[in-house]
């Protein structure tokens, strides 16, 4: 089996092609024809992925506490998130398996291919190359997390209120900027901070939405 197209898709060429073969070797294939399955690589890839995602969070989401970061990471490396990325990259078609094992190749097996590929790149090119791959093919679960700007807009529209306004500014050095955002709506103001303008606005929208809901609940209790 040729992995040329896969290497082109991920932007990395393996020096040791045997690592790539092992990454796509199902236990049924290894049991029938010998050699190592990808199970140990899955274990290693999971650890490398956890590290890289944690590192990305640490430097980009400094406003979040440990518990919040942990919950977010769980979403980013969950079975569904990795399965979606493995499907997008077409990894399943490279899997080597034997006979009836095909009927047992489900989400778990396909999602693990993302981890085994991370491990293979790590073993072949080191942590920097694995990081390049993960950042370029980041699990998209983050996009399914709540969009607070949309939630705030929907909240205001349902109550016939004007849409929110956002103001922002950039601070710090160009290589490590900090973005500040101010969100205003419904007679309230909230501030957000983040490693990007989008993250700062999302935080401001989240805090503003919480403020407006608390205000609404207080007014309801007084009636």
Would you give an account of this structure?
- The protein is mainly alpha-helical.
- It folds into two domains: 4-144, Ribonuclease iii, N-terminal Endonuclease Domain, Chain A (Orthogonal Bundle); 148-222, Double Stranded RNA Binding Domain.
- It contains ten helices and three strands, in the order αααααααααβββα.
- Strands 1-2-3 form a three-stranded antiparallel sheet.
- Strand 2 (178-185) and strand 3 form a beta hairpin.
- The longest helix is centred in the last third of the chain and has 26 residues, at 197-222.
Quick summary:
The chain has 223 residues and is mainly alpha-helical.
What is the total tally of β strands? 3
- CATH level 1 class label of the largest domain: Mainly Alpha
Name of the CATH architecture of the largest domain = Orthogonal Bundle
Strand content is 5-15%
- Stated plainly, the CATH topology of the largest domain is called Ribonuclease iii, N-terminal Endonuclease Domain, Chain A
Distance between the termini: 72 Å
Tell me the strand order in the biggest sheet.
1-2-3
Number of domains: 2
Sketch the topology as an H/E string, one letter per element.
HHHHHHHHHEEEH
- Major pleated sheet: 3 strands, antiparallel
The geometry reads as: elongated
């Amino acid at each position: 089996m040729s992995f040329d197209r896969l290497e082109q898709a991920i932007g990395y060429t393996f020096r040791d092609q045997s690592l790539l073969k092992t990454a796509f070797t199902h236990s049924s294939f290894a049991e029938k024809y010998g050699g190592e399955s990808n199970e140990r690589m899955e274990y290693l890839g999971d650890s490398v992925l956890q590290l890289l995602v944690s590192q990305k969070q640490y430097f980009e989401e400094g406003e979040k506490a440990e518990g919040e970061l942990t919950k977010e990471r769980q979403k980013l490396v969950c079975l569904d998130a990795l399965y979606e990325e493995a499907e997008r990259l077409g990894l399943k078609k490279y899997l080597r398996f034997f006979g009836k094992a095909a009927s047992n190749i489900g989400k778990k097996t396909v999602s693990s291919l993302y981890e085994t590929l991370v491990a293979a790149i790590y073993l072949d090119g080191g942590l920097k190359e694995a990081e390049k791959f993960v950042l370029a093919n980041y699990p998209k679960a983050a996009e399914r997390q709540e969009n607070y700007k949309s939630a705030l807009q929907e909240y205001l529209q349902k109550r016939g209120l004007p849409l929110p306004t956002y103001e922002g500014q950039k601070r710090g050095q160009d290589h490590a900027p900090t973005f500040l955002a101010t969100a205003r709506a419904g007679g309230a103001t909230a501030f957000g901070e983040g490693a990007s303008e989008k993250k700062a606005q999302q935080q401001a929208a989240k805090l503003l939405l919480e403020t407006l809901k608390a205000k609404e609940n207080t007014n309801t209790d007084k009636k």
